[in-house]
Write a structure and sequence with these properties.
It is a single chain. The strands form 7 sheets. Strands 1-2-6-3-7-21 form a 6-stranded mixed beta sheet, covered by helices on one side. A 4-stranded antiparallel beta sheet has the order 16-17-10-18, covered by helices on one side. A 3-stranded antiparallel beta sheet has the order 4-5-23. Helix 8 (about 345-360) packs across helix 9. It has 2 domains: about 1-175 and about 340-420, Zn peptidases (Aminopeptidase), CATH 3.40.630.10; about 175-335, Alpha-Beta Plaits, CATH 3.30.70.360. The two termini are about 30 Å apart. Helices cover about 30% and strands about 25% of the residues. By secondary structure, it is of the alpha+beta class.
């Protein structure tokens, strides 16, 4: 019965388009969609008999148990834009052994799995030494994180916990995340207009432009790619790459196409940019050309760069500054999230790893990822699930899905993990 309730709840939540920071107002500080999603989960918690707190939509949570300390679970209700071309309903659909829809993996499905795990513990009267608080974020995907910053400024801090927004068996490190805007003149580019991509942290699946041919005539060009998460750009097909390749084949040259061809094409790891960094803990740096737009009289290209945990923004930015100076471009860093690196032999990781192995029988080792999660938002938080090793990763892609058995397994893993963490 509770498993069916979980599925029904997820389909109801997925039906809400909750892209962050659209139609912001006092009543919806992170956008209308996230506000509707928050209202939905608050009502759900009430029906489940779990106590809630909502601070005027700025931050809200569900909580069980008693005690002076808090085990925190940080989930988020916002999503990246769904885009077009889905074979299944982007607002939620069951097909075979899968649930499809934007957010079913990232992060509505695992957030609700954690919520229903809390309900099971509460209904069973399980003894907990600490309170367990599921904090509902509303602007994780945008990178603003004003919700968690507000929480840290105004609410009780958590002792430790997890965010159900990555991979099993456990994540003990995350690369740094940098976003750079490279701006160059439209004049002399051979282009009349250009645009592509939906968000910097997604491999763009579309791009289009109007360019001038050899006779000065205007020609339209479009390219189709395949989306993927920016932390794994090699898993997608970048439509901006394809657009530039075709422009070059047609003889369209200028600062934009020449720079892009020389320093970005066919290189996901920054070698052509002069920042091909790597370390033993977290592997190679990654680069995603996520967005391109014309703003005023300029072309603006936005890069999402994930730097290894032992390097910082300055290690990456130095080479970009040199290149921008060479090409007469301006450079702006619009996001800088430091990496996370925690002791994998510590009690939190050990407890999470033990629970995962007990439930699944899978003896995989904890890892470091290129993705960015709310583990960066608060001390003591690590990323934990829901993706199992070897599963197809469809977050930020068309036809995002989660296996129904994996959703139920995540709920059981979270139930046992919450009990372990609350009683450490």
């Amino acid at each position: 019965m509770e498993n069916q309730q979980l599925i029904d709840a997820l389909l109801g939540l997925t039906a809400i388009d909750s892209v962050a920071l659209t139609e912001v107002s006092d009543a919806a500080p992170y956008g209308t969609g996230p506000a509707k999603a928050l209202e939905y989960v608050m009502e759900l918690c009430t029906r489940l008999g779990i106590r809630t707190v909502n601070r005027s939509g700025r931050v809200a949570w569900a909580e069980i148990g008693q005690g002076d300390e808090i085990v925190g679970i940080l989930g988020h209700l916002d999503v990246v834009p769904a885009g077009d071309g889905w074979a299944h309903d982007k607002r939620g659909e069951i097909a075979g052994d899968r649930i499809y829809g934007r957010g079913v993996v990232d992060d509505k499905g695992p957030t609700l799995a954690a919520l229903f795990a809390m309900k099971e513990l509460q209904d069973a009267g399980t003894a907990l030494k600490r309170r367990v608080r599921l904090i509902f974020g509303q602007c994780e995907e945008d990178g603003d994180w004003g919700d968690m910053n507000y929480y840290l400024e105004h609410e009780e801090h958590v002792a430790y916990g997890f965010t159900p927004d990555a991979d099993f068996p456990a994540i003990y490190g995350e690369k740094g995340i940098l976003e750079f805007r490279l701006t160059m003149p439209l004049e002399g580019s051979g282009l009349v207009s250009i645009e592509g991509g939906e968000a910097s942290n997604v491999v763009p699946e579309w791009a289009r432009c109007v360019y001038l041919d050899a006779n000065g005539g205007r020609q339209e060009l479009a390219a189709q790619g395949r989306s993927a998460h920016a932390s794994t750009p090699e898993k997608g097909v970048n439509a901006i790459d394809k657009l530039v390749e075709t422009l070059l084949e047609r003889g369209v040259h200028g600062k934009f196409t020449d720079f892009y061809a020389k320093h970005l094409l066919d290189d996901y790891h920054g070698g052509k940019l002069g920042c091909g960094l790597a370390d033993e803990q977290s592997g190679k740096l990654t680069v995603n050309s996520g967005l391109v737009r014309v703003e005023g009289r300029n072309i603006v290209l936005t890069l999402d760069i994930r730097n290894p945990v032992s390097y910082t923004r300055s290690d990456v930015e130095a080479s970009l500054k040199r290149l921008c100076k060479e090409y007469g471009m301006s450079l702006e860093c619009t996001d800088d999230l430091a990496g996370v690196y925690m002791d994998k032999e510590g009690p939190v990781i050990k407890a999470l790893l033990d629970v995962y192995r007990t439930v699944t029988g899978d003896m995989s080792e904890p890892t470091v990822i290129g993705g960015g999660t709310y583990a960066r938002a608060m001390p003591g938080i690590v990323a934990y699930g829901p993706m199992r090793p070897g599963r197809e990763c469809t977050e930020h892609q068309r036809d995002e899905y989660i296996l129904i058995e994996d959703l139920f397994a995540a709920k059981e893993i979270y139930r046992q993990a919450i009990e372990r963490l609350a009683n450490l």
